[in-house]
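1st attempt posting a full record on here, be nice pls
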Amino acid sequence: MRSKWAINSAFMAFYGFAATLIVWVLWAYKMGFGIYMLPFVGRPGPVVTMAQELGQSCLPSAALCQNFPLSTMVYFQFVFAAITIVIMAGAFLGRMNFRAWMIFVPLWITFSYTIGAYSLWGGGFLFQRGVIDYSGGYVIHISSGTAGFVGAHWIGPRLAADREDSRPNNILCVLIGAGILWIGWNGFNGGDPYAASADAGAAVLNTNVATAIILQYTAPVWVLLYTVLSGGYKPSLRRSAAVGLAVMGCALAVGFVGSGGLRLDPVGVIAALLAAFSFAFYNVAGHSVLGRYDRWKVLLWVLASAATFWMFINPPWKIVSAHYALRQWGFMLIFSLLSVLGPFSCYFAGLQYLEPTRAVVVSCLEPVFSIVIAAIALGELLRPLQTLGIVVVLVAIVLIQWPGATGREELILEPIE
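the predicted structure (as tokens):
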């Protein structure tokens, strides 16, 4: 946000947390997790006495009890409610004054958040129909996003002067906040099974792995941004849509959507972003180099450099001391030809004639082929969302390759000299 809104945004978050907690313990917790009153909301009531707080946590409408006190459950679910308010605050920043925000927060928690919480988590009608929201996709993200969108529409746009310059006040603070958020969200995800169980550990690990995997497939975004910002070509709706569809299709294909939502692990995120940046640089620089040199010469130098680097990581005497059999050497030779030399030769050939954005979008076929081959050869289950992701990737490839109105390439200069 702009510097003039920095203090206001901080106090909106502080007040949001404080007001939500007061409302939560006085009546809202029982509306979301208490005794049945209506199919979509529980009976309001306080949770403030010591006897209540030290008693065992139970969800009467869901016929479920946890092995910890009610105070733990109340606070755990309060943080979900409070973070929903803070997410929504971003839509109202610069639009709503602080006095209106003070009135809005308790009303929205009472008449909106508790309905979603009870319906899905507290034993309401959606819970009874088998609808599962593991960690807030519906209760938190859809509700806050919808409320922010509708609220921004009815409140109206920010002032014209504020819209002209929307540069962030402090990018470092944004990154610090994101880091704090993902550490906390790992706690949410691990705590959702309501026990220190195998489910909790698996949920945290798998959703972090899924995030790391999908971030690697953001390379098309970085290629598009670089070539546009460097003057390679003007941005177009068709290219932007193709890149967006490619990333979304990969997310669906690798199972990121439906795996528990976005959970960020620092090591996984850093490794995935490095992989994405490396692949983006490989496409942009490779296109420029292949325009000046023969692709077989480039491939030879690339493989020689990689082999030299690997000799420092895994020296030859270690390989010799492993005493591999002749069959194992033959397997490694065939594997290297099929998995490295062949694919890279084909990719370099394509990169020589395709500009980087088109090439990197086409490269999103890699997870598609992997999934299809695994389904055919190994009998792995191909889920509906994965099938949809494959279709989306194919649509992105067709869209990026479709000739423009002029029938010519949009690239107007080489990305790297």
